[in-house]
Structures are given as C-alpha cells and as structure tokens.
Amino acid sequence: MERPYLELSAWQLAIATSLILINGAISALLGLGLGRRLLVAAVRTVVQLLLVGLVLEWVFRFSRWYVVLGLLAVMTVVAGLAAIQRVGFRYPGMWLSSVVSVWASSWLMGAAAVFAIVPVEPWYAPQYAIPLLGMILGNALSGISLGLDRLGEELIGRRPQVEAMLALGATRWEAARQPIRQAVRTGMIPIINAMMVVGIVSLPGMMTGQLLAGVAPIEAVKYQIVILFLIASGTALGTVGVVLLSYRRLFNSDHQFLHQLMKESR
Amino acid sequence: MRAREPLVKACGLRRRVPGGDELLLDDVRLEVFPGERLAITGPSGSGKTVLLRAISLLDPVDGGIIHWRGQPVIGDEVPAYRGQVIYLHQRPALLEGSVEENLKEPFRFAIHRARRFDREHVVALLRELGRDESFLEKPSRDLSGGEAQVVALLRAIQLRPTLLLLDEATASLDPATVAAAEDLLSRWLADAPSDRALVWVSHDAEQTRRVADRTVRMNAGQCEPER
C-alpha cells in the first residue's frame, strides 16, 4: 500500500537552505564568531549530499555487484579511518586495527542482512545493501571510537597497576582484563541506551525516512527492529575486535606492556 | 662460594631511549647468586631502575639476554618467572579496595592459583612491621606512601619469591619501619639462603652498607663492580 510521495523542487530546497540564516543571525547577535564555520558547514552539507546523491544515482542505475562492493569498500575504509580521529591516543598501526575491525564486523552483519534476514534479489541490490551497511558502519564506527578511547585512557591511567600485576606474575591477559572490559562496555553502552528509548524519545532516521516515503508504519517498524539488532551486534563485534587487536599490539608474547608505543594525541 | 650457579644472569643487556640513540643500558652484565644481598648504587638516571625492570622482563631490551638458573626465559614462561623474581617499585601501585583485597589479588593469577591466601602468615608479617590486623581492612586509597610500601612488600613476600628486586622499596617508610623491614628481609633470606637473594637499589648509602654484602655501581648505563 504505497502512498503518494512528494518530490522536492530546487525552490523548495533553497527555502530550506535559507533557514541557515537563523543560525547566522544568532551567531551575529550573540557574537559567537561562528559565521564562517556555519557557512562552511552549510556548503558542505549541500555539496557532500548532492555528490552522494549523484554517485548513488549512478550506482543504482548501473547496479553491478563489483560497483556496489567497491562503493561499500570505500565506505568501510572511510569509517575505519574516521573512527580513530577522535581517539585520545595513538599507536603505530592503529588505523589498521580499526579498519579490520569495522570491516569484519559490519560486513558479517551486512551479509546476515542481505542473505538471511532480508533476502534481497540480487544480494547486492544497491537500494538495500548500501543503506543497510551504511547504518551498521556508522554505529560500529562510534563503538570502535569510544571503545578505543576508553582503552587508551585505562591503559595510560592505570599503567602502574597493570605493571604491578605483571610484576607479580600476571599474564598479559590477567593484567589487561580490567581495562579491556571497561573499553568494551563503553563502546556498547550508546547502542544499548538507544535501544532502551527508541520510539519513545525519538523516531529513528531510517523509520522516519520510510514513513515519509509512504511506507505503512508497521512495515517501517519491522525494518527498524531488524536494523537495530544488526547495529547492536555489529557494534559489539567491532568494539571487541578493535580492543582485542589493540591488546595484541600493546602486549607482546613475552607478557610485556609496550606502553612506549602509546602516544597521547589530545 | 661463587662456584655455585647464579640464580639470574644478565648478559650484554642493551636498551636505547625509545625512539632515540642514547643508551639507557650499555652492555650490562650482572649475576646474582643464591644467598646474596646485592646493592646497586649510582647517580639518578644512571640506569638502576631500567636495569631492575629489564631483569624482571617488564620492558623489552634492544640486546642481551636474561638467564634464570641457566635457562633463557621467553614467552609463556615469563609470568612464572615474574612470580619468582618480583620487582618492587618505589611508588607501589595498589588496586581499589582494601589492603586484604590487594594481598589476595595475586592468588587469582594462573601461576599462583594452586596456593591460598594465608591470612595468619600475613598478620604475623604485619606485626613484625609494627601494624596489627586492622590494617588489613584499610581502603588502599587512604594509605600513605609508606603504608603502600608495606602492602607492596607483604604482597610480594607472601608469594614466597626467590629473588626480590627492591627499587627504593623502603624509601617512604619511617625509620622504625625501615629497620623492621630490613630485619624481615634478612630473616626471609636466612630462612633459605641457598635459594633466595635480594637486590637493593637505594639512595641511602647508610642503608646500602647495612643491607648489602656486595655492591655494583652504575654509571651512564654501564655497570662497574665496586668490590
């Protein structure tokens, strides 16, 4: 039961875009000094989204598996690199741990989605594969980012305790277990919180989009439920993955804590 | 007496400043024999702490090797080695929780799991250091630097190690407790002189004279015997 869907004209877009003047006026009146940044943000919003729209138009029309996979791969690498941007520490090869974790966890969940849960024909149908993986990636990214950040905080802040345990005969795992647990918890909490309040405090973006496109509410809800569970598992796997890969990098097989590899980056 | 095999033997230890060329340890050779009380002296920054940490295998070295009873120690043998050769830091790191919880913690490690926390033994040791049983209930965050050193010393000794590497481990104690700790360690050594040894790093020359029967001096990452 598809409902009519209203297409937007360039004029309508322009009206919406002009709303940025409200932000500009506030900045000017209160002397926030945000004018330049608002302008850049507004231009980036329009340009980036229009570019994505053009790329997607082309991919949707072309619809070959290698094109779709190529685009998904680019999205995945960008997500992996973006995940470490706001992390408060660095170690050599951290970007690789992040990319590997986001790749393995998101593609596993993406495969579960298009092969088992939403049996799409063909499996690479861009209309499904791209937004599904995109949503999984976006959340895995923030789980990885938060988990890594917390791991660094714990290992740098608790280095004396970690070393004291090693000095008393703890294995590297016994010494690092507490920081690892804290890091994984921190990475998983936002998605758990989101699942707690979903539908009560806010309507999730995908569901909102489907409603706007005229999909029956109960159908939109079903998709939202599926995607939330995919996101939750993807985030958990991505967070565990990046934390364990970092642990393997920061503790060597001689049970030494290679703290000198860690550099704070804030 | 020196015909015996050393407990620990470090050969050609080298360590550079991470990311630099300056040598923290420059071809250090050191042997520690059973029954020995060895003091390592030298100015600040001469590499004493770096050497003790290298012997306890806490830091990777750029060259050289540590032999334990004639065998190199690698990989999964390292935790068991560290259970025998315990390094005590000048500012001990305690975990959250009470003193007793801190003392129990090592028994959760795989290498100590076969043994149990022996409360009576610990209380007896505490008495020797001028503390009573109630000390066990104290939260670790309320401890002074000296009290933390008492906990760290007990936490190590109760594990019946073979070699203790003491890095200014009594520097924050009051004089009476320092004397008690030295007595405790002397008796600990005398209990099994053929199987135990002590290495001290201390800035206190008086203490070095009291506790050591051999001294080596470190200078700019190199080790020179004094006698």
Automatic annotation (TrEMBL), chain A:
GO cellular-component term (any): plasma membrane
A Pfam short name: UPF0014
Primary localisation category: membrane
InterPro entries, A to Z: UPF0014_fam
Topology with respect to the bilayer: Multi-pass membrane protein
Intracellular or extracellular location(s): Membrane
Annotated transmembrane regions: 12-32, 39-59, 65-84, 96-117, 129-148, 191-213, 225-247
Keyword terms: Membrane, Transmembrane, Transmembrane helix
Protein family (similarity comment): Belongs to the UPF0014 family.
Protein's recorded name: Iron export ABC transporter permease subunit FetB
Species for this entry: Tautonia sociabilis
Lineage: Bacteria, Pseudomonadati, Planctomycetota, Planctomycetia, Isosphaerales
Automatic annotation (TrEMBL), chain B:
Residue intervals passing through the bilayer: none
One Pfam family this sequence matches: ABC_tran
Keyword Nucleotide-binding set for record: yes
Keywords associated with the record: ATP-binding, Nucleotide-binding
Residue span, ABC transporter domain: 8-227
Domain of life: Bacteria
UniProt GO MF annotations: ATP binding; ATP hydrolysis activity
Protein name: ATP-binding cassette domain-containing protein
